[in-house]
Amino acid sequence: MSPACSGTSEHHFLCSICLEVLTDPVTTPCGHNFCKTCISTHWDTSTTSRCPVCNQVFSTKPQHQLVEPVENLESRMCPKHSKPLELFCQSDQTRVCLMCSVLEHRSHQLVPLGEDLFEDKKVYLQQMIQKRREKLEAIRESVRFRKEAADRGKAEGVEVFTALMELVERGLKELMKTMEEQQEAEEREAEGLIKELEEEIFELMKRSSEVEQLSHSEDHLLQHFCSLKAPPATKDWTEVMVHPSSHEGTVLRAVMMKMKMMQQFAVDVTLDPLTANPYLVLSDDGKQVYCSDKKELYPDHQDRFDSYQVLCSTGLTGRCYWEVERNGDVNIAVSYRGIRRKGNSDDCWFGFNNQSWRLKCYRGFYIFRHNNKVTHTSCPCGSSSRVGVYVDCPDGRLSFYEVSSDSLTLIHTVCTSFTDTLYPGFWIGFGSSVSLSPL
């Protein structure tokens, strides 16, 4: 700095042109201070840019502007390398010098210090806040979804197990009644035999007493007469046996009968080739279907779906049960035969209208849909790919079960009122397949 700028006298704060306290101060490369307006006016009236104090000539007009003195200069210096803290490490969220950038923070993300940094920092923090708020809302939504699913699951559980308990109670009463009636019949039979034996014992004891008395009599004629008297008639009890009924296995047999109840409602369903979309390939026996990437040369028919769907030819009445082996993305449905076939509106898709009911396995959970209303079931998709469908047309009950080798797990039950004959149906995703399993 030149002598004109050194010291602490008041001349340091005076303009060398107007000799007043500096207004909007600027400094020249030679170190003299001026009001910005004064030096600009002076240079505008001159052909060269020259310092009015020392007459030094500048090739271009200087644009240096004085700024306020820096406070706490030590805080802007690196304590380790004694260099200015000119960079900001975003990885460690701290200020660093040039030496730090090539040593300790060499592989970190560095940006120059400046006002833009703080603006970027604020934007970055706001983005972090927004992301966490979105995550918070997602977690809350997940909690609400899980609570609703749990509530539905509990309601379904209460409904199903209430019906199951009623069924078990009725079965238990019938079982107890049968066993009690059998026990009472056996007791009556035993009581009749006991009474008959007691009567014979009484007669035999009576005859034994008479014989005892005659043995002490001296009347030989009386003794001879009594000896010729026939003994009382008695029954041959050699072959008479009382065999108590064995109740071992009775309860197991009752449970097995309940497990076989579904089988008595089993129906044999077959796919209707006239309804199959041209990309659905059916087996010759109508028991299997898969979705191909090649279009089949099916004849045109008014019943054929434009969407990847197919109906069965078997109409359902009364109580019916069948099982399906699914592979991949599959919807299992029941539908009235009047469902729309042509086009891609909601009237054509299983579950999107009041003509059909469908079940889909999606993201590990079963989802039920009817009349475009979605119900997320509480039953996760297990390891088994077999699904059982039970429909009670008179009572308006439709149930889906996950079937394994040793269990039957309820997925979802809906109670409604069926107004027409139902037909099993399927939507098949690309590369997926369905097999109608024999029972």
UniProtKB/TrEMBL annotation:
Keywords, sorted A to Z: Coiled coil, Immunity, Innate immunity, Metal-binding, Zinc, Zinc-finger
PROSITE patterns, per the entry: B302_SPRY (PS50188), ZF_BBOX (PS50119), ZF_RING_1 (PS00518), ZF_RING_2 (PS50089)
RING-type domain location: 15-55
Coiled coil: 165-214
Domain B30.2/SPRY: 249-439
A GO molecular-function descriptor: zinc ion binding
Domain B box-type span(s) in chain numbering: 73-113
Record GO biological process: innate immune response; protein ubiquitination
Top-rank taxon, per record: Eukaryota
Keyword Kinase: no
InterPro entries: B30.2/SPRY, B30.2/SPRY_sf, Butyrophylin_SPRY, ConA-like_dom_sf, E3_ubiq-ligase_TRIM/RNF, PRY, SPRY_dom, TRIM8/14/16/25/29/45/65_CC
Family annotation (Pfam families): PRY, SPRY, TRIM_CC, zf-B_box, zf-RING_UBOX
A cellular-component GO term for this protein: cytoplasm
Membrane-spanning residues: none
PANTHER family reported in the protein's UniProt record: B-BOX DOMAIN CONTAINING, BLOODTHIRSTY-RELATED GENE FAMILY, MEMBER 16 ISOFORM X1-RELATED
Protein name: Uncharacterized protein
Species per Swiss-Prot/TrEMBL record: Gouania willdenowi
